[in-house]
Design goal:
2 copies of one chain form a homodimer. With 395 residues, chain A is an alpha/beta fold. Chain A is built from 17 helices and 11 strands. The first copy, chain A, has 3 domains: 90 residues, no CATH class; 185 residues, Rossmann fold (3-Layer(aba) Sandwich); 60 residues, Arc Repressor Mutant, subunit A (Orthogonal Bundle). In chain A, strand 5, helix 9 and strand 6 form a beta-alpha-beta unit.
Chain lengths: 395, 395
């Protein structure tokens, strides 16, 4: 039995900076904030316990070292060993105060703003989200795309990320990314410039601007879009949290597009999560001589990522129509018998149809029929001396 | 009944500049040369007749207007209308003289040098090939790749074509292309420079250098590789013949790779033939901002072409092994629990394992086990005060 005050009173006191709640709501919300301190993102044992019992009952059971039907005794014992050393009412109260000070809202799975698409992560789903900015935006991500990529992006990558994000966000598709230097930053900035919605998922607390050089950008996103993290305010971004943040980017977005990535880029991790979630995955090709495109080519070659050449391709990935309608007919126009008739004509002199047929190696009556059709579309001209190629025609 | 001297005597006289043959061989070879004058490449009615009866018997039947079991009376009647206006013993004799003068060899389907892979074209297979250079090379194309692309190639495209062709041809893979400006020329040149085999398929007669600016290159290819055409010597390259030449490039090669291509490039036609023949198809990506890569991205998106990033990928396309073995383990190394332990360590100060476990949110015994492993590979150091990150370690 571990001693910890999980009473409604303690909960309401800790939550006071963030708002007033009735007893049950306060206890559940407080217990969620406590869980946030105990676990690292993606803890599937905690995930199963909370999903099955609620945050407060699950925490109570863990504190009293009871058995629970949804996890094995061994899983629970291992869980207690990693969770309880972190138990601190002080730390939870501090994180809630920091959240209140920076206008960061705690969104739990029972709140109406909860983005239910992240539940596709099952036991690895976040237990809550800390949100700075427009909380309602989380429920407006049906049309959304994660645009991610290398921090050390090339000018080409920056340019493409901006073009894609500007076009998509301007057209009502939310642009989700990780707030990092390089591709992420270019995508966020272009989305903001186009007046569209953009969402930044941070690996550290939503109260912290990371990287520091993006403090202004992240503030802008919070003001006009939304900044999200699953770790409590005050938490540092660690490599593990970056990797887990990537799974959240993939889960929150309807599709993921990697613009540039080195051979072992972290963006491939985001792409892997998108693929594991059966979310559509796209990758932008680039010069094969560029190290920053090695990862996107790898995604196309080895992971079945769609080759993305523009915003229309992303909309197609999202099932929003558009795409290449000009596809049909191209080959037909160049391989038909009319090509052979055209080959046998000249712009310079008139030729009679028998001559044309012999040159084309086709029967005269076939050639005459085709000449009539070609005249209709303006490709050839008829005169008293025969036929010739119209000046505007050609390959 | 159309009058034409198809006797062994006439055949031997016409073939005299090219060599001496016995009666049957002379008649069949001469009839093949006659067929070459009558038809355009890919004529499937002629193809079926010649495959079923041989060139001479098929021609005799056409001349006497008999019926034949392998084509419908209508097909035969249509065929006669397009073939017979071109019948000219003079033209055939001229083409054979031109061939002899330029050392162009007529290779028929019964010759041992016939490259049987082109028979995959069925009725659309060529009835013969006119070959300048090393005729035996046609039977050494098991390991071969067509490297084709835009005439108006970019410097990037030229560079990639040269790198691929040089590496592949130098390693024993024959490089097949169309002798055109741009990608084709770059591929041929690099293959020659590397001392490998290269094959140029021309749309006009094998005696003609087309384009004129590539006269020296095509002469070089004839000298150290082989120049091939299915149309008779003296024939002009027409658009139809270019398109049919493309089918032959695809059929002669074990795989086709398009390096650069505009949205409606003729190279897409070659790629379409490769796909229709179930030959492996590859395309090299490039910047999505480059018009000369629009066609290759289209092949990857719409035609299932493999994304080619280097010569190894081409060898993989050809089933010659190689490829990316470095694939495994990359993600595992970055997502394991060891990452969390590393996150919880510092290079600056020593930390004891309980502290590390709490920071990592993991059980102390798990952390201790992992610290031991990490010490073995040199990632962490152990001291009397605990553990720290080795200086060389990091993300």
């Amino acid at each position: 039995m571990t001693s910890f005050d999980l009473s409604a009173g303690a909960a309401r006191r800790a939550l006071a900076p963030t708002g007033a709640y009735d007893d049950d709501d306060a206890r559940e919300r407080y217990a969620t904030a406590v869980w946030c301190q105990l676990i690292e993102p993606g803890d599937s044992v905690a995930g199963r316990l909370i999903a099955a019992h609620g945050a407060a009952p699950a925490l109570e059971a863990v504190l009293r070292a009871g058995t629970l039907p949804d996890v094995t005794p061994r899983e629970l014992a291992e869980g207690r060993k990693r969770w309880l050393p972190r138990l601190s009412a002080r730390a939870v109260a501090d994180s809630l105060s920091m959240a209140a000070a920076r206008s960061v809202t705690l969104v739990t799975r029972s709140d109406p703003q909860w983005p239910s698409q992240v539940d596709d992560l099952d036991a690895h789903a976040p237990v809550c989200l800390w949100v700075r900015g427009d909380v309602t935006a989380l429920r407006r991500l049906e049309a959304s795309v994660a645009i991610v990529g290398a921090r050390a992006a090339s000018r080409y990558g920056d340019h493409v990320a901006m073009e894609l994000a500007s076009d998509l966000a301007g057209g009502g598709v939310a642009v989700v990314s990780g707030g990092a230097y390089g591709i992420d930053g270019a995508a966020h900035r272009a989305a903001l410039s186009s007046g569209g919605l953009t969402v930044a998922l941070l690996a550290g607390g939503a109260d912290r601007s990371y990287p520091v050089g993006h403090t202004q950008l992240i503030d802008d996103i919070a003001e006009r879009g939304v900044v999200v993290s699953e770790v409590a305010c005050g938490s540092a971004p660690t490599k593990w949290r970056f990797l887990q943040r990537n799974r959240l980017i993939a889960a929150l977005s309807a599709a993921t597009v990697v613009v540039e990535a080195g051979w072992r880029s972290g963006s491939l991790n985001t792409a892997g999560h998108a693929a594991a979630l059966s979310r559509p995955l796209g990758a932008v090709p680039g010069p094969i001589t560029s190290a920053t495109s090695a990862g996107t080519h790898r995604l196309i070659r080895e992971y079945g990522a769609q080759c993305i050449t523009g915003a229309d391709d992303v909309r197609e990935l999202l099932g929003l129509g558009s795409g290449s309608d000009a596809r049909a007919g191209v080959q037909a126009a160049y391989t038909g018998e009319s090509t052979r008739v055209m080959d046998a004509l000249s712009t310079r002199g008139w030729r009679e149809s028998g001559d044309i047929a012999r040159r084309a190696g086709m029967a005269a009556d076939t050639v005459e029929g085709l000449l009539g059709l070609l005249r209709l579309d303006g490709s050839v001209e008829a005169g008293t001396e025969g036929w010739r190629l119209a000046r505007r025609a050609g390959g």
